[in-house]
Design goal:
alpha+beta, about 25% strand
């Protein structure tokens, strides 16, 4: 007997990911992971500020409380550690893609892109709820235009899909009425 099922993949892109990671969340994550010298990084980032040009003058200094320093050597690593907290939350749900006889997992991530894999819409919604909670807490936001959901049936589901396609074609032919140019005698 063939295995069958559904695999749903939801690809998510984060909006301005590297500049929107909340500093207080980043420090909490680093401390939770046991990273040494978080105080040093916190002090370094606490002195981050910028000014913008307004007309012919400059604005007052603006304190930065989100993001990692662009061009800084540790910045990509800091963001990866930040995102790793979300990946651990996804793992903790116990939800997986559910394909039998394969390693069970529910996500893949690269830089500021995340894909989640599930077997049901309900499980997909549960993982999206976890991601939404992380968004709310951390300051990261999902970019809807950079996100997409796809699904595939496999195993005997493929047979069901092919049979369904044949039935749909037969129904369309019946609904179209008689073929006047090629009458059946």
């Amino acid at each position: 007997m063939k295995e069958s099922g559904t695999l749903i993949r939801i690809d998510l892109g984060f909006k301005n990911a590297f500049i929107s990671a909340g500093h207080s969340c980043l420090w909490a994550i680093l401390r939770g992971l046991g990273v040494p010298d978080v105080d040093f990084l916190e002090d370094l980032y606490s002195k981050s500020w910028m000014k913008t040009t307004v007309g012919t003058g400059c604005s007052a200094p603006i304190q930065l409380d989100t993001g990692t320093v662009q061009g800084s050597v540790p910045s990509p690593l800091l963001f990866d550690l930040f995102l790793n907290a979300l990946l651990r939350l996804l793992d903790a749900t116990g939800i997986t893609h559910g394909i039998k006889r394969t390693p069970q997992w529910n996500h893949a991530a690269f830089a500021d892109d995340l894909s989640i894999y599930v077997g049901t819409v309900r499980d997909g919604n549960k993982l999206l709820d976890v991601i939404h909670e992380f968004e709310y807490w951390s300051g990261l936001r999902i970019s809807i235009p950079k996100s997409v959901a796809t699904g595939a049936m496999y195993g005997t589901g493929t047979t069901r899909r092919q049979e369904g396609a044949k039935a749909d074609a037969a129904k369309r032919k019946r609904d179209a009425g008689p073929d006047i140019l090629n009458p059946q005698i």
